Amino acid sequence: MESSIEDVLIDLAELFKNFADSTRIKILYDLLDGEKNVTEICEDIDMTQSAVSHQLKILKTSKLVNSKREGKSVIYFLADDHVSSIIAMGKEHVEEDE
Amino acid sequence: MESSIEDVLIDLAELFKNFADSTRIKILYDLLDGEKNVTEICEDIDMTQSAVSHQLKILKTSKLVNSKREGKSVIYFLADDHVSSIIAMGKEHVEEDE
DNA sequence: TAAACATATGAACAAATGTTCATATGAATA
DNA sequence: TATTCATATGAACATTTGTTCATATGTTTA
């Protein structure tokens, strides 16, 4: 089943919404390092556990991250190679004009 | 003057906000075709003139589009090559899983 | 199994965002 | 220059969104 270009653009907007919040993009950027549990992420990006958990859920729902449980912890990791490409591309743009 | 990675990520979130709304991304996608005046854009994406104008202003402020006046019309065009790269990359991601 | 640790989640709240409506501004033309 | 066409903009409104706070759930260990 093929989607119209309009549908694709709407999905695209949805995708970019994930990168459009500084907490979420910090989480994604943090996970470029490799998989981490929630506590680590909180420390790295200096946000409360609750705020991070809420955002992780959004990222997971949109399939940009995935998770696995390891004992008491839950480990999150990037679900998709495109994430790093998209961040890299945006980063290039942002760093270009300073 | 060098910015911290945190600043870069905040700017990055700001950048992606522009792509995170379907009206704006439709405008940007529409302009991949080439420059167009406001009326054309409205017809192409089927949105009111006011809504489009408001969003064009946002896109212009964030320097993703530029404009020039030609008689009664104002012509808008993409200001940056990165725009197409970013859209293309996201499009690839979105179209991948269907 | 009770306590401690790690994560998830719901409700409430404030702030940000996008559209509409009405109208203003700017430019061409009758 | 009055009218028409094209675009911009402000105010109001509804919606969406992100954080905090309190608490629930799940897992290990004393």
Give a short overview.
Two copies of one chain form a homodimer. The first copy, chain A, is built from five helices and three strands.
According to CATH, what is the class of chain A?
Mainly Alpha
Which residues of chain A sit in consecutive blocks of at least 5 with pLDDT less than 50?
none
Anisotropy-based shape of chain A: globular
Tell me the strand order in the biggest sheet of chain A.
Answer: 1-3-2
Helix content range of chain A:
55-70%
Radius of gyration of chain A: 15 Å
CATH superfamily of chain A: Winged helix-like DNA-binding domain superfamily/Winged helix DNA-binding domain
In terms of structural class, how would the helical and strand content of chain A be classed? alpha+beta
Relative strand content of chain A: 5-15%
Mean pLDDT of chain A: 93
Give a description of the structure.
Two copies of one chain form a homodimer. The first copy, chain A, has a single domain, classed as Winged helix-like DNA-binding domain superfamily/Winged helix DNA-binding domain (Arc Repressor Mutant, subunit A), CATH 1.10.10.10. The first copy, chain A, is built from five helices and three strands; from the N terminus they run ααβααββα. In chain A, strands 1-3-2 form a three-stranded antiparallel beta sheet. Chain A has 98 residues and is an alpha+beta fold. Chains A and B meet through α1, α2 and α5 of A and α1, α2 and α5 of B. Chain B binds a DNA duplex (30 and 30 nucleotides) through α4.
